[in-house]
Amino acid sequence: LDPDLLAELVNDYLSAMTDIALKHGGTIDKFIGDAILVFFGDPESDGLKKDASKCLSMAIAMQNKVAELDKSWREDHGIADGLKVRIGISTGYCTVGNFGSVQRVDYTVLGSTVNLASRLESICQPKKILVAPETKVLLEKDFKFEAQEAVRLKGFNQPVVPYQYLDLKETTSPKILKGDVVDIILKQPKDIENILHELKSLQKDYEDKLTKAKSSKIKKK
């Protein structure tokens, strides 16, 4: 790529990612080339689960935005290789503060939690999101994950089992349950628990809307 065009595209990408991070309550730590380090819980935490949920929601929004940018870059600039982003997420306690020298300091985060997120990002597949076991435990009732093979990561004595975030588009198989309102695709038997949870949510939403509709009719009378 032409250097000027490359700079323009990288800046557009980082600007879009920054907007999403700030919208979800993240703190921008630093840019490392075309990478970005974001952390949550500063200056005040909303609790491990809520911080983790905001972080994963941010990551999902980022991947969706990257897909949009990829399409526009292909159409506008003829970039054939495409834009592919990997994201790693971990949950835990970090040391936060000013670090550096007398001449220069950076407000940043340090610790094994940061290192783990970086390691997960490095082994993540393009266009995917990997989370640490601690993050998965906090969010498994609200999001879908699939366990990956245990891996040995630099800086960690024990193997780590990463979990890949799955959206509904990724849970595909010939096994389909059909309803009047929604089609549900099952990938594995273990997905049934998640599907039942989704059906209960849909049922509750429907009942709430029905109650509001009845209330509206009563008021009109």
Task: Describe the protein's architecture and organization.
With 221 residues, the chain is an alpha+beta fold. The protein has two domains: 3-167, Nucleotide cyclase, GGDEF domain (Alpha-Beta Plaits, 2-Layer Sandwich), CATH 3.30.70.1230; 171-221, no CATH class. It is 45% helix and 19% strand. The chain is built from five helices and ten strands, in the order H-E-E-H-E-E-E-H-E-H-E-E-E-E-H. The protein has helices spanning 3-23, 48-77, 112-123, 133-139, 191-220, and strands at residues 27-32, 35-39, 87-89, 95-100, 105-110, 129-131, 144-147, 163-166, 176-178, 183-185. The chain starts with a helix and ends with a helix.
Q: What pattern of helices and strands is seen along the backbone? A: HEEHEEEHEHEEEEH
Q: What kind of sheet is the major sheet?
A: 4 strands, mixed
| Straight-line distance between termini | 67 Å
The portion of residues forming beta strands comes to: 15-25%
Looking at the structure, the CATH topology of the largest domain is Alpha-Beta Plaits
Map the helices and strands.
Elements: H1 3-23, E1 27-32, E2 35-39, H2 48-77, E3 87-89, E4 95-100, E5 105-110, H3 112-123, E6 129-131, H4 133-139, E7 144-147, E8 163-166, E9 176-178, E10 183-185, H5 191-220
Parallel strand pairs: 3-6
Antiparallel strand pairs: 1-2, 4-5, 6-8, 7-8, 9-10
